[in-house]
Amino acid sequence: MLSDHFEKLKELIPEVYSHPSLQEESSENNPLFKVVKRTLSIIEALYLQNNEALRPATIDEYAQIIHDLKNMGYNYNGNTDLLDKAAGQLIMKAKKPMKKAQGKSRKSDQDDHKQAM
Amino acid sequence: MTRIVKFPVAPPQKLGPKKVKRRRKPDLEDYGQLNLFAQFEKEARVVNLPQSSNFFEEALQLDENNDPQAEKYYLLAIENDQSREDAYCNLGILKSQQEDFARSIDYLTKCLEINPRHYEAHYNLANVYSEMGNYPLAKTHYEVSIQIDPEYPDGYYNLGLVLISLKSYKTAIEVINQYINLSPDNDHKVASELIKTLKALG
Hints:
The complex is a heterodimer of chains A (117) and B (202). Chain A has one domain (30-116). Chain A is 69% helix and 0% strand. Chain A has helices spanning 2-12, 14-17, 22-25, 30-49, 56-71, 80-92, 104-116. By secondary structure, chain B is mostly helical. Chain B has helices spanning 55-64, 70-79, 84-97, 101-114, 119-131, 135-148, 153-165, 169-182, 188-201. The radius of gyration of chain B is 35 Å and the shape is rod-shaped.
């Protein structure tokens, strides 16, 4: 039903529907987009072969490239697992820092020893 | 008439200890160009020798000042059996900062070998695992650290972040709420925003 409705709309206001999509607009860049896609698929293949192969910084870059492509009007879904990892890394950047030991363990051990005596 | 004749006697030589007198250094200029190839004496340098009584305290102080010598002093502390577990723990932090995660884990687990209930070691180990993207292990160590010291808020906060990464949003909300209950008021803003976002995610 909806498709019929849109077909009718296309006939009534063809100027709206003849507007090329963002992806079509950037068709002149398509060869470049294909090269980028191939590059990204190489990264994905490396990850699929060994999921320890990529360093956190590489995963961040991978996610950033896909984000940039989307902002430029291209559609590339990417590897869900890698994108999840990148999101996780981004979240964990907000974590609280490491905690140094102050030597209290030894002091408390000594205190325990004294109490025992 | 008799005449007293003075017998020539040399004054007695003083016996006993003899003091060394400072000798004047000969000026080589007086002897031509004998000083032509003379080498200048090197300046003495004052070196701070480590106070062997407390290598750990020394290391901690250097560490606070981001001095790379801290590592050496932590190792000296271990050698001299001074706060060994804490020295291992802090070496783990140093290695993690250098992104040498394997050695960081090695040091932190050595600390746990001495004291399996070392709070900081579990918490820091969890931070290292989360840095490496190993969230299940990070989660376990944060949970253990909370079991050991349930009053320390940062463990809850980081556990909350790990749970978000593992998409366990409901539990994450509970844990971050515990962080809010335990931390000072000025730390609540970000955590509260996080909870709002998580609730929106459902």
